[in-house]
Q: What sequence folds into this?
């Protein structure tokens, strides 16, 4: 029952019956057009409702599969696998690139990335940082001049 309109650019969601752009449907390799029959919004609502109605299963599954969720997050957010993360970790001797503190048990180092670039671009991933320093760079919007001003301020006030 897939209906394509607009020269194959759009598709009608089977659930909400709304015509939408193809990028509003998740990828599914086993379908004729390579996209889900339900739009992402409808699939999200279904998943959210199931998780609310079955919290014990949703929580248990997340607790039993932490590396699955970790790997999924790394792929989605940064375009890297768990193995590529591990290679970065080894390259940095398991430590934050700024303070050199080691990764803590059950607390992974954050993937530091350049927000101006896209996943897959050379230089997108800069390294691994502890949560404090990753957030610190984020608060300064990765602005080198602003960071220099902060250093100047600290040096000026050091003996004040």
A:
């Amino acid at each position: 029952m897939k209906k394509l309109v607009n020269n194959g650019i759009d598709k009608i969601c089977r659930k909400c019956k709304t015509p939408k752009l193809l990028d509003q449907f998740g990828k599914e390799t086993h379908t004729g057009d390579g996209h889900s029959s339900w739009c992402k919004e409808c699939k999200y609502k279904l998943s959210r409702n199931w998780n609310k109605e079955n919290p014990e299963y949703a929580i248990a599954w997340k607790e039993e599969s932490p590396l699955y969720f970790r790997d999924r997050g790394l792929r989605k957010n940064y375009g890297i696998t768990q193995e590529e993360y591990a290679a970065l970790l080894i390259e940095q001797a398991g430590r934050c690139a700024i303070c050199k503190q080691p990764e803590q048990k059950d607390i992974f180092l954050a993937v530091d990335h350049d927000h101006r670039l896209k996943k897959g671009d050379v230089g997108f991933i800069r390294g691994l940082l502890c949560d404090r320093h990753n957030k610190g760079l984020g608060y300064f919007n990765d602005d080198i001049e602003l960071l220099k001003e902060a250093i100047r301020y600290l040096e000026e006030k050091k003996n004040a």
Notes: The mean pLDDT is 86. Residues 40-53 form the longest helix (14 residues). Strands lie at 4-5, 10-12, 19-21, 25-27, 35-39, 110-113, 125-129.
